[in-house]
Design goal:
One of its GO terms (molecular function) is ATP binding. Its EC number is 6.3.4.19. By secondary structure, the chain is mainly alpha-helical. It has eleven helices and six strands.
Length: about 290
């Protein structure tokens, strides 16, 4: 039986809705399966093997067994991720390429806190402070739960979760945030800071939505329009435009935005921005030009 009160804090769709869950075999994703089934959803599990360690293909067997136990469908996918820098980010990108756009994941409040801190050390600004969202697109129905609670779900059902060695590898920034920075913040604050970070993320997300609605009223390619609004809003509109134009994986950096503002102000007629893209101005309008 699901521990009391957990399901009510999740955000699953109505009973009978067909959903796809990304399941690694870890405690969070196995708890996602249990809770989705208990919510009455028609569940299909997808396991993605990144081929990053010996025996990783066998992990799909555990996920397939969970699918059979809980009456869910099962799909196995395999992606190729070459060794090298930014391994975690490249593996994540490869994984999402083979998952449906509205896939359900097992991210928890602990993951949210780590994401907020990771975004901040990367300089991701207000949007980064908003952390992860539960849709549109990727669904994260467990964001109100703690990691200890997903483990409790697994314990209640006798599920033995996989322990990914990457989650203890200090080469990855997220791992150091989890095992070093968050415990240190707890100690300094003399409290559990995860709920604080998660609550701040929700407030920041509300502010982001308000700014997005305001920016929707501005043509970010029109120089005159950008000059007529407060500079912070011009920055916001430009950042959204550049992110959409360049399909940037991470938020557009502040230096790129300032260079584009110089083009808007007439200090220069063109500049380079994220990913080798170029922004130029012609007859009072901006255009984004891809790398050669």
């Amino acid at each position: 039986m699901v521990p009391a009160g957990l399901l009510e804090r999740c955000s699953f769709p109505s009973a009978g809705t067909a959903i796809t869950c990304a399941v690694s075999g870890g405690a969070d994703s196995l708890a996602l399966v249990v809770l989705a089934v208990e919510a009455g959803c028609v569940v299909t599990l997808v396991h993605v093997d990144h081929g990053l360690r010996d025996g990783s293909g066998a992990e799909a067997d555990l996920v397939a067994a969970a699918a059979a136990r809980f009456g869910a469908g099962f799909i196995a996918r395999r992606v190729v991720v070459a060794p090298g820098p930014n391994l975690e980010a490249r593996a994540r990108a490869a994984r999402y390429r083979v998952l449906p756009a509205d896939v359900f994941t097992g991210h928890t409040a602990d993951d949210q806190a780590e994401t907020v801190l990771l975004n901040q050390v990367r300089g991701a600004g207000l949007r980064g402070l908003g952390g992860m969202r539960d849709g549109p697109g990727v669904r994260r129905p467990l964001l109100a739960l703690r990691r200890a609670e997903t483990q409790a779900v697994c314990d209640a059902y006798g599920l033995v979760a996989l322990d990914d060695p990457m989650n203890a590898d200090p080469r990855f920034t997220r791992v150091r945030i989890r095992h070093e920075l968050l415990p240190m913040l707890d100690d300094i604050a003399v409290r559990d800071v995860v709920p604080v970070l998660a609550r701040n993320a929700a407030l920041a997300a509300e502010a982001v939505d308000a700014l997005d609605a305001w920016a929707d009223t501005i043509d970010a390619t029109e120089v005159a329009a950008l000059r007529d609004v407060p500079r912070p809003l011009a920055r916001w509109a430009l950042r959204r435009w550049l992110a959409e134009s360049t399909a940037a994986e991470h938020p557009v950096d502040a230096a790129s935005i300032e260079r584009v503002l110089a083009v808007v102000d007439g200090t220069t007629r063109a500049c380079e921005v994220v990913g080798g893209w170029r922004v130029a101005r012609t007859q009072g309008r901006l255009r984004a030009e891809p790398p050669d």
